[in-house]
Amino acid sequence: MPDIQMRFDKDMLVLSAPLRSVLARQGVDVDRDLEYMLLVEPEALRDTVRMEKIAGAQCLVAATEGIAPARLAHKGMEERGTELALAALGMLRPLKPQHLLAEIGPCGLPLDGSSADSLNENRAQYARAAHAFDGQMLDALFLTGFKRPDDLKCALMGVRQVTDIPVFASVDVDGAGMLPDGRTSIEEAVALMAEFGASVAGFECAAPESDVVAVARRAAGACDLPLAVQLEVLRRDPKQGAASEENPYYCADTMVSAALALRAAGVQFLRATGDASPAYTGALAAAVMGLDVALSTGQER
């Protein structure tokens, strides 16, 4: 796998979609069973990711979002983080991805920003999660699903205590570019990412294309890091016939114009999430195939 840093601000790249939606459609209780499947049925998960690779995703994302010890503890697996990391990465390597990323999501512990003990406990969660990947060949860690700046700050600080590999960071925002706390803007979030060691800054959003593009332009203006955007598909509904405010990405075709508009806004990494299928990943990949990152002016970097 080539070093992904060599491609920063160059090639447009697409990340594989999360496994959760596809597995849920197959009847899997993802919240309960995903980690167990990684250990005992990795070939079933590999088949799902293989479709993402065939669709054109250059970056395969390991399904380790719940690897923080506090979350594994709910399943009686708090001591099996390294085993899960090995299984998740080992499942993907036979697919020969161009780049391999590993997700780390919020640890789920309460966080009191005024308490040193609380801050240290939270940072330790992410340090232990990152430690699970020690010695493994992967291109980057992917901190995703963060809804509060304090949680993201702890995650970045914890990860950076133990590793210097590239780190992608992503927060959830609405169409106005605000985090769910209602106080933090996308500009503040990406500035925090840059300050605390992220290599790529990003956000996930379910808003219509025009709103997402506007948020991306604001993010590009607030930091000098490569940008990643995750488009959340709320509901696949080909019978809908046209994009709506309530469900803008109703079919895979909607990804094409969104991908090109986000490229023009300076975004490099694209991903479909939520109820996305491999067809969404394929549409993103086809739209930007062979293209380099563009500045918001439309000029090549």
Q: Could you give the order of the helices and strands?
A: EHHHEHHEHEHEHEHEHEH
The value of Rg in angstroms is 18 Å
Q: Per DSSP, what share of the residues sits in E-state strands of 2 or more residues?
A: 5-15%
- Span between termini: 24 Å
**Contiguous helical run count:** 11
Structural class: alpha/beta
What portion of residues is helical? 40-55%
Describe the sheet with the most strands.
Answer: 8 strands, parallel
Which strand order do you get reading across the main beta sheet? 1-8-7-6-5-4-3-2
Number of strands: 8
Uncertain regions spanning at least 5 consecutive residues: 296-301
**What number is the mean pLDDT?**
93
Tell the overall outline. Answer: globular
How would you describe what is shown here?
This protein is an alpha/beta fold and 301 residues long. It is built from eleven helices and eight strands. The chain has helices at 20-25, 30-40, 42-55, 69-73, 81-92, 116-131, 149-162, 186-195, 209-222, 254-264, 278-288; strands spanning 13-14, 59-62, 99-104, 140-146, 167-172, 200-205, 227-233, 269-274. An eight-stranded parallel beta sheet has the order 1-8-7-6-5-4-3-2. Helix 10 (254-264) links the parallel strand 7 (227-233) and strand 8. Helix 10 (254-264) crosses helix 11. Residues 296-301 have low confidence and may be disordered.
Topology readout:
Blueprint: E1 13-14, H1 20-25, H2 30-40, H3 42-55, E2 59-62, H4 69-73, H5 81-92, E3 99-104, H6 116-131, E4 140-146, H7 149-162, E5 167-172, H8 186-195, E6 200-205, H9 209-222, E7 227-233, H10 254-264, E8 269-274, H11 278-288
Helix pairs in contact: 3-5, 3-11, 6-7, 8-9, 9-10, 10-11
